[in-house]
């Protein structure tokens, strides 16, 4: 079955946007990873201040071990929620990564293990 996400009208309400984000996550988690990420990025462009999309996109990047992209989306999510402590943790992880951190290091950090996207 082909998903036709572009046919679903995009509403500005939080619940509608969350539904769209999770529909795109389902696409990603069903094995259509690149298509799911592309759909999440499109949703992010349509509603840049909706934190849910950034959280789901960050999780997809974490699964794919795209550390820089994960950090960017996690930081955006934390900023939108004004989570100062989480922002500091993400910034520290970014510095460690830029100083030669190994691939996948971010996902094994305290932030990634504890599900920092949700617990902030």
Provide tags for this entry:
120 residues, mainly alpha, Serine Threonine Protein Phosphatase 5, Tetratricopeptide repeat, 7 helices, 67% helix, 0% strand, flat, disordered C terminus
Gist?
The protein has helices at 14-29, 33-46, 51-63, 67-80, 84-98, 110-113, 116-119.
What does this protein look like?
This protein has 120 residues and is mainly α. It has one domain: Serine Threonine Protein Phosphatase 5, Tetratricopeptide repeat (Alpha Horseshoe). The chain has helices at 14-29, 33-46, 51-63, 67-80, 84-98, 110-113, 116-119. The longest helix is centred in the first third of the chain and has 16 residues, at 14-29. Residues 1-10 and 116-120 have low confidence and may be disordered.
Structural class: mainly alpha
The biggest beta sheet reads: none
**Could you state the order of secondary-structure elements as H and E?**
HHHHHHH
Poorly predicted residue ranges: 1-10, 116-120
Give Rg in angstroms.
Answer: 14 Å
What separation lies between the terminal Cα atoms? 36 Å
CATH architecture: Alpha Horseshoe
* Whole-number mean pLDDT: 78
Tally of separate domains: 1
- Count of helical stretches: 7
Beta-strand percentage range: under 5%
Number of separate strands: 0
Tell me which oligomeric state these chains represent: single chain
List the helices and strands and how they pair.
Layout: H1 14-29, H2 33-46, H3 51-63, H4 67-80, H5 84-98, H6 110-113, H7 116-119
Helix pairs in contact: 1-2, 1-3, 2-3, 3-4, 4-5
């Amino acid at each position: 079955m082909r998903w036709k996400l572009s046919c679903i009208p995009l509403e500005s309400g939080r619940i509608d946007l969350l539904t769209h984000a999770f529909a795109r996550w389902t696409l990603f988690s069903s094995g259509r990873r690149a298509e799911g990420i592309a759909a999440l990025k499109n949703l992010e462009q349509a509603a840049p201040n909706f934190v849910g999309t950034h959280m789901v996109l960050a999780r997809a990047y974490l699964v794919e071990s795209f550390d820089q992209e994960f950090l960017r989306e996690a930081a955006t999510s934390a900023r939108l929620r004004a989570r100062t402590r989480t922002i500091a943790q993400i910034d520290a992880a970014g510095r460690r990564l830029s100083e030669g951190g190994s691939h996948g290091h971010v996902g094994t950090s305290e932030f990634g293990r504890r599900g920092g996207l949700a617990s902030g």
